[in-house]
Amino acid sequence: MTSTQYFNQAVETLPRDDIEAMVDEKIAYTIRYAAEKSPFYRHYFRDNAVKPVDIRTHEDLLELPVLSGQTIRDNQPPAAQEFLFRSTSWNNIFTIHETSGTSGVPKSFFLTWDDWNRYAIKYARIFTSQGFSDKDRLIICASYGMNVGANTMTLAAQKMHMTIIPTGKCTFPLRLIQSYKPTGIVGSVFKFIRLARRMSAEGLKPADSSLERLIIGGESFSERSRQYVADIYDCEVLNTYGSTEGTMCGECQAVNGLHVPEDMVHMDIYDPYKKTYIPEGKPGHIILTTLLEPNETIGTLLINYDTDDTTRVLSKSRCTCGRTHMRIENPWREAETIRIFEVPVNRIDIEDAVFTEGNMEFLTGEYEAFVYGDEEHENVLRISVETLDLKGVSCTSIQDTIIDSFLKEKKELEPMYADESLQIIINCVGPSGLELYHVRGRPKRLVDRR
After folding, report:
1. What is the CATH number of the domain that holds 342?
2. Cα–Cα distances in Å, from 87 out to 108, 117, 187?
3. pTM of the full predicted structure?
4. Which residues pair with 95 in a beta bridge?
5. Which domain does 210 fall in, by range?
6. Beta 184-187 vs 213-216: how paired, if at all?
7. Domain edge (last residue) among 308, 330, 352
8. Do 354 and 317 share a structural domain?
9. CA–CA distance from 6 to each of 119, 127, 321, 327, 339 (Å)?
10. pLDDT tens digits along 195-247
11. Which segments within 42-100 are labelled E, that is strand?
12. Residues 232, 238, 241, 246, Cα dihedral to 10°
């Protein structure tokens, strides 16, 4: 079913020419704001003899530097005396956020109430495109705190008059489903799988519940794992993608890619290795620029910011849902990609092989993968999968299925596997036998140990 609902139909169905004109108009204002309010950009424009009035279109943005997370760290304490990306006065700052800091000093982000309002509008559009309305009750399994996602969804629900059940985790008591009859849950593939297992253990069939759609947020996933979840619950499973920087894209019920709110954030695709921008249809890093209107404030203004996530533009034509904003492929995180004999392998490649049809009769879906070796001459890819009945499963059969599926998608690795310079080992473990169960925080499912 494809929704014909819109949160703001006039904006969401703008003709392509009008979208482009609006983007250019907002870029011109955003650059003026940066020159006046952002210490980082004020210094950059001065030191590089850039005239803000000369940057008027999205093509002009390509002449400005691409920023990385390290650029932010280099321009905040302790590396700098002040937060040079803070782009408004302290009395306009509503909340302060930090990234996890797993790759070094946490990046600091400052949000004004205008930021939160923009975030909420973006998510309200997404939820509406996914069929949600004021008649729905939505459980949010994302954590409330430094992560902006849960609060953003809650604010979006307020704008839609939708009811929120803010559990923060998917380990909530099952009576919440029985008592409040939620119509949707926001979580992750593995949260949904574990929840279904708990429901079944208590005699509750997931497909017979009140749930009409599940929303995957906060992580990439394979299409096979999505389909597995959809089959368990017998309902729609749709995708959202967001970040503290304000990306927030969503998949409508047409499932033709994630819509980018082009009137609020400009997106380019970039090759960080060749340091060039990439034409439509080719994969590359997501480069984003927040777009402002006059009289709006922003806590942290980022222009040409490299999110370190990868996608490609699928289409800029009108979607079957009626929306005209461009659609992108489900992004995957560069941090979850490693190279084996120069061939990129993402966590999703492993996940897709694990969820190959037939495997899930015996597996829980939980997995982890490690790469060993010397990178150039010999590599070992060890994939461990969890089963609830280790004695009753044929690990040999599962091994063959996973390896065949993986090499079918990564044909470049077939010669290395054939001459044994690449070994692929499948390890079956019992309940809680994976290393990730013993690691604090968010586990990494693909780890390079070379």
Report:
1. 3.30.300.30
2. 12, 17, 32
3. 0.93
4. 111
5. 1-330
6. parallel
7. 330
8. no
9. 17, 10, 10, 16, 42
10. 999 999 999 999 999 999 999 987 889 999 999 999 999 999 999 998 888 88
11. 93-98
12. -130
